[in-house]
Amino acid sequence: xLIYGLQHVLxxxxxxxxxxxxxGKTVGFTNExxxxxxxxxxxxxxCGTILQSIGIGNWIGSRLPIVQGCTFxxxxxxxxxxxxxxxxxxxxxxxxxxxxxxxxxxxxxxxxRFFPKVVMGTIVTLIGLSILPVAGxxxxxxxxxxxxxxxxxxxxxxxxxxxxxxxxxxFGKGMWKNIAVLIGIAVGTVVYSLFHGFDWQQVSxxxxxxxxxxxxxxRPQFHLMPAVLMSMxxxxxxxxxxxxxxxxxxxxxRPADKDTLRRGLLACGSATFVGGLFNMFPYAAFAxxxxxxxxxxxxxxxIVGTAGCILIVMGLFPKLAALVVAVPxxxxxxxxxxxxxxxxxxxxxxxxxxxxxxxxxxMVVALTLGLGMLPVLVPQIFQxxxxxxxxxxxxxxxIGTAVAIIANLLLNAEKKPNKPAVxxxxxxxxxxx
Length: 433
Known about the structure:
By secondary structure, this protein is mainly α. It has helices at residues 2-26, 31-53, 75-108, 117-139, 152-171, 175-178, 180-196, 201-205, 224-251, 258-277, 287-296, 301-315, 318-326, 329-351, 361-372, 374-377, 387-393, 396-411, and strands spanning 68-70, 283-285, 421-422, 430-431. The chain has a two-stranded antiparallel sheet. It has a two-stranded antiparallel sheet with strand order 3-4. The longest helix is centred in the first third of the chain and has 34 residues, at 75-108. The chain crosses the membrane at residues 6-23, 35-55, 85-109, 118-140, 152-172, 179-198, 218-239, 302-325, 331-351, 363-382, 388-411. This is Purine permease.
C-alpha cells in the first residue's frame, strides 16, 4: 500500500506544488512564506484525498480512488485577485467558493447535460493555454524586469530539463514514465548546480517539522467581485471533478451515479472551504492519477487513502518544500512547459471525441478559444474598463467559461422533432410533416 500510494504522490507532486509556487510569487511572498504555503498545501491535499477516497459514511466523498489537488483552473483568477486584494482576498473568495460548491452540489450533478464534451474540452484546453506564459516567465529566469531575463544560460537549462523529461518519457516505462517531470526537475537542478551552485542556506535554515495553522498568512477578506469570480471558476472545477469521477467509475467498474457525484462534489467543496481557512486554494480531482489507475490496474481506494496519508506527512516536513523553492526557475520552466501543456492536451483529447460534422460545435470552440485567449495574447486590451469588471475580463478562463456555456446553449439548442401527422381513417399509416 505504501509503494502504490507513493506512486500516486509522485505522479501528482509536480502539479500540486505548481499552484502555490505561482501564487506565492504573485502576492509577493518571501521564500520562507512560500515554503510554508507549499507545506500547508500538501497537508490539505492529503486531507482532501482521504475525504474523497475514503469518505465519511454516505454523506461526503465519492469513495472512488481519486486524488485531490490544487486545480489549475483557478490559477489566473487567483493571481488577479491576489494582485488587488492580497492573500486575504484570495482566502475569502476561496471560502465563499467552497460554500457555493457545497450548496450547489445537489443541483450541479443534475446539470451535466449543460456541459457536454465540446464545452469541457474547450475550457480545459483554454486553461492549459492560459497558464503557459507562467512557464515562459520561469524559462527566462523568473523576473521579467531583470536585464538578464532570457539569457542563454537560462534558455539552455530549460531546454536541457525539457530534453531529459522527453527522453525519460520516450524510453521509460511504467512508473518511470509517469514521474518523468520529477526526474527532469531533479536532474536539471543537479546540472544547474554544477555551473551556478545550489543555495542550501534556505534549506538549512528551515525547520524540520511544523504544523499548518489556520489563517497563518492573513485573515480572510470578503469582497463581492472576487467571491463571484471564484464561484464561477468553481463551476468549471465541479464539472472537471465530475468528469474524473465518471471516468474513474468506469475504470473500477462502479459507475458514478448522481449520489456518488453529489458526495464527490461535497468533498471537493469541503476541501476548498477548509483550504480557504488555511489561506489555501480550490481543490479538484487530479486527472493524471485517474490515468495511473487505468494503467496499473490497482483500483483500491484505500491505496489512494494511503497516498493522502503520505501527503499529510510530507506537509509536516517543510524542508521538502524548501528544496522545491530552491529549484532554479529555468529548470522549473522546462518542466512547466510539459506540466501546463499536458493540461491543454487533456482538453484536446476530450475535443477529439466531439462530433464536428454538420453541427455548430466548431463555432463554439472558435468563440471560446478566440475570446478566451484575448487577455493572454493582448493583456492591455481591457486596461480602460473599471477595475471590478477588469477582474473578470483579464481572466481568459472566466471569459471562456461564460462564452462556452452560452454559445453551446444558443448554437446547439436541441430542436424538438416534428410530430408525425396521422392520416384520418388510417390507424397504421403515418406521414411525417
